[in-house]
Amino acid sequence: MKKILYSPGEPSGIGPDLIIQLCRTTFWIDIEIPILCISDPKLLSKRASDLGKKITIKEISDISESKANRRNVIQIIHISDCRNLKYGKLYKSNAQYVLNNLKFGIDEALKNKKLALVTGPISKENIISINNAFSGHTEYIQQRTKSNEVLMLLASDQLKVALVTTHIPLKKVANKISKELVISKAITLNQGLKEKFKIKNPNIKLLGLNPHSGEGGKIGKEEIDILIPAVKELRKKKINISYPISADTAFTKKNLKETDAFLGMYHDQVLPVIKAISFGSAINITLGVPITRTSVDHGIALDISGTGKSDPSSLKEAIKTAKKII
Predict the structure, then answer these.
(1) Contacts for 17 with CB less than 8 Å, ≥ 6 apart
(2) Which of 78, 204, 230, 274 is deepest in the core (most CB within 10 A)?
(3) Predicted local distance difference test score (pLDDT) of residue 320
(4) pLDDT (tens digit, 9 = 90+) per residue, 52-63?
(5) Exposed/middle/buried for 284, CB within 10 Å: 0-12, 13-18, 19+?
(6) Domains of the chain by start residue, with CATH
(7) Mode of pairing for the β-strands spanning 35-38 and 160-163
């Protein structure tokens, strides 16, 4: 039986709020798949009380015990204690709690192909305070699943964007990009679009690194030295990918209509576009790993946690997409 594990992420943010709000809607029943929350029951109980939402928490000790969703009822698995139940501010004492829940979710998804992991927003800042090597959900999942390649894909009904580099300083991007990396990421993207979205021959647009894709080498040589040679090899592998195009004209209506996914060189080259177009309805999908993982497209929103103002739309989409994939 298909099931979904939800890791709410940073307890001081809106991750717990989202699942509390969602369990009180018709979506909770209509999704027709058990959703289990990895959480300290005290955290959800207090947050629901602060939100003025009446819910029932049903604690289970094993995923196999889970039942079909019931409205206003959240099934939870208690893996770790949340040290500080307050919200609106980060607490270093909660960082290990977030990691413990995430580890459990990844490991369970590895064991069971019919189990998907859906993640809420985390604070990288808080986790880095206890683990300097941490750089994000995607990279952590790659490490935990011992995957050779991993790709961050953000998707909505209007647009899909993927990244060659993820959470690294901008000054390091150019040195990080290589022909081998671009080829590897493009292959992972192409395969993911086929497997996860059932697209037979994906049309991929590759973005240049430099303004105007380098202007024939006048504004940087990366397109000539790295990206164009990578595209030539990818096309030999029958992958339908464009030569590097300028990011400032990539997302025209015509391109959006005919393109299945855009492969960008760095985080802020493509994420602002999809968030401008689809914020709240986009989701994050991890490709290249042996588990199904989707996530919300937003951050922890400390300023509105505990207020009831958070919007669970992105979590809904993440759950719906996870169900389709598994």
Answers:
(1) 47, 51, 305, 306, 308, 310
(2) 230
(3) 94
(4) 999 999 999 999
(5) buried
(6) 1-147+289-326 (3.40.718.10), 149-286 (3.40.718.10)
(7) unpaired
